[in-house]
Amino acid sequence: MPIVFVHGVNTRKGAKYEKEVRNRNAMFRHLVLSQLVDDSSSACIMNPYWGDAGATLRWNHASLPQSAARAFGRSERLEDVLLGEVATTLPPRPGQSVLVIARESFSRAIDVLFAVAVDLASDGSAGGVVELWTSANDYATRNPRPDWLDSVRNDAEFFARLSREIEDRQPDAATAQAFGPREVWQRVREAMNRIAHSFSNVGSDLLLVSTRRRLHATVSLFLGDVFVYLQQRGDKGQPGPIVQCIIDALVKATEAISDVDSKLIVVAHSMGGNIVYDVLSHFRQDLTCDALVTVGSQVALFEELKLFKLRDLSVPRDPAADRMPKPDNIRHWLNVYDTNDVLSFAASGVFEDVTDIDYVTGKGVLSAHGTYFQRPSFHSLLGERLEEVLQ
After folding, report:
1. DSSP 8-state assignment for residue 289
2. SS3 state of residue 235
3. 3-state DSSP helix/strand/coil % of the chain, to nearest 5
């Protein structure tokens, strides 16, 4: 069951990009494909990269306001971004960072803790961290607020109790051993320490400044990539470089379909959703997608503005009742949005036969847009919904 992932704006190659691809692939295999196929280890996952054909800011963001410009380019760690989403209060004393989050929402604390652990994992242990999250998430589902949360006094005690609770419930010790439990738990412990360090260095005012500069930087590249794409997407006879990149990946994935892997899934984030819709509705209507998942995307907004190549100005005559038909070569369409994500839009009010899914990443405004695919819980939900539509 091939998966093609089409990235969105503000994506450029480098160590951060390579790590994101590795971690996302691991979560696709262990949390999505594992619910759809018997052997997810050999499934084809493709990550076409179009960022090098995107926007280039010729003055290196000189147009950003001074405060944002000074901050832009600093290394921003995942835990800093996630804390901007989930943290409503600073811990009352050192060593209680994760505990504070857990007492507000135990499941969210598990998700943040393991998202950072996956980010810290080596190539060989990322899958093990994801598998361990599955056990931790199962425990959190059965115990939304464990009684012991009120008795542990700090992060160290929280970690010790959590690890003991999960290990006591491991159904298959041999499976856990195969992933190297010591290294896996070490990554989780390191993640907890990184979160604590981030809490100690990032106060509420600094979180606000960080959000503002991410907003400036992301919006500038978002607009840049959109303008470049619209200007250079070409036509059917001569597709532009971004369109051709995605066409090539979809053709290759289609060729990988077999009796064993009989369905093609396309997952598209942000601007990637607009590109995929353009490709399937106009450039290559001969290509078929069994399931299209648009995440944090603007497909409905682009259609409201009639920006796609497939441009039918007769729809809608009655906005309250009329919808744009879903392209026939998209068999199932799931659209995931977060009301906290200012760059994501619902689609069912514009298109026929599309299922909107409201996924809550946390409390962040801009951070929500970039962290869907860094959360184990998102991939688990995605696997469940794909299993429903593809079964």
Report:
1. B
2. coil
3. 55, 10, 40
Q: What is the mean pLDDT of residues 212-231?
A: 81
The answer to whether 354 and 335 are in contact (CB under 8 A) is yes
pLDDT above 90 (res 258): no
Residues 351/61, Cβ–Cβ less than 8 Å: no
Closest residue by Cα to residue 108 from 376, 386, 381 = 376
Contacts of 137 (CB under 8 A, 6+ apart): 107, 110, 111, 376, 377, 380
Q: Which amino acid is at 265?
A: I
Residues 283-322 have pLDDT tens digits of 999 999 999 999 999 999 999 999 999 999 999 999 999 9
CATH of 3-57+211-390, one of 3.40.50.1820, 1.10.8.60, 1.10.150.240, 3.40.50.620: 3.40.50.1820
What are the tokens at 139? 């425990």
Specify the 3-state DSSP secondary structure of 239.
strand
Q: Give pTM, 2 decimals.
A: 0.85
What's the sign of the alpha-carbon dihedral 245, 250, 253, 255? negative
For 225, the 3-state DSSP assignment is: helix
pLDDT (tens digit per residue) in 103-161: 989 998 999 899 999 988 877 788 899 999 999 999 999 999 999 999 999 999 999 99
CA distance 107 to 140: 6
